[in-house]
Backbone:
């Protein structure tokens, strides 16, 4: 989520506003170690807001079908 926000140039407060979830919810999601822990509805709202803002979230091991450039964190060995 931090990387997605960085790509958009927005802070946590703006992501909360765009997604309709509270700032503490965004903060808790970003504080999660590894897999984001959240209520499914809140997570869907954040993912949808990021998608609408122009960020494609790519699942681990998935291919991006988008036409733009992308960034993916490699697995650590």
Residues:
């Amino acid at each position: 989520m931090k990387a997605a926000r960085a790509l958009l140039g927005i802070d946590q407060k703006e992501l909360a506003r765009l997604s309709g979830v509270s700032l503490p919810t965004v903060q808790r999601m970003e504080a999660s170690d590894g897999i984001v822990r959240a209520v499914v509805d809140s997570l869907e709202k954040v993912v949808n807001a990021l998608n609408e803002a122009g960020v494609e979230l790519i699942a681990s091991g998935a291919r991006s079908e988008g036409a733009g450039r992308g960034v993916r964190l490699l697995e650590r060995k």
Notes: The chain has one domain: 1-77. The chain has a mean pLDDT of 85.
